[in-house]
Amino acid sequence: MLKSYPAIFHKEDDGSFWVEFPEFHGGTQGDSLEESMKNAEEMLESILALYIDEGKELPIPTDINTLTVENGFVSMILADPTLKLSLIHISEPTRPY
Predict the structure, then answer these.
(1) Is 36 in contact with 18 (CB distance < 8 Å)?
(2) DSSP letter, residue 85
(3) Residues 4-57 pLDDT 10s
(4) Whole-model pTM above 0.70?
(5) Are strands 3-11 and 17-21 parallel, antiparallel or unpaired?
(6) Following DSSP, what letter does each residue of 52-82 receive, concatenated?
(7) Lower CB density within 10 Å: C or N end of the chain?
(8) Terminus-to-terminus CA distance in the chain, angstroms?
(9) Do residues 10 and 71 touch, judged by C-beta distance below 8 A?
(10) CB atoms < 10 A from the CB of 80, how many?
């Protein structure tokens, strides 16, 4: 199940980026653009998997055309939360009966 959400990439003076997802009130970062893109995808997969696992309704993605950033860019991030869901269920401890 592929989902995409907009991410705002803010460029720092040292060339690193911090990334925010407006729908999830959180973000990630990376020392390079490549690392920040990878971290953004991993974060989105994890948060979507958590929403699905907890039965929460996924937020409607913000229209990318309404987002702006002064020093950086906005991009859609595509993620497959089912990859993380299988890990969540595999790693859950078994309960003794």
Answers:
(1) yes
(2) H
(3) 999 999 999 999 999 999 999 889 999 999 999 999 999 999 999 999 989 999
(4) yes
(5) antiparallel
(6) HHTTPPPPPPPPGGG---SSEEEEEEEE-TH
(7) C
(8) 34
(9) yes
(10) 15
